[in-house]
Amino acid sequence: xxxxxxxxxxxxGVAAGALLGVLFAPEKGSRTRRHLLNKKDDLKDxxxxxxxxxxxxxxxxxxxxxxxxxxxxxxxxINSEPIKKV
Length: 86
Known about the structure:
Elements: H1 3-23, H2 29-80
Helix pairs in contact: 1-2
């Protein structure tokens, strides 16, 4: 699944939830706005954490693949050297 689609889905879900929450809120408007601002900050922090985790995992996998390719090419160089007859 494309990560961009997942992030877009999460953002759309948050926006829809916030809209429905405002429409059906039994509290005063000022209290609801304060609640939404607090929720926004929590969601922003959670999204940042997930994004940082994704980048870290991607970086780790990239480094592993890079290392594996380097090891493979080094092994190929050693095995492909011509044998000298004495």
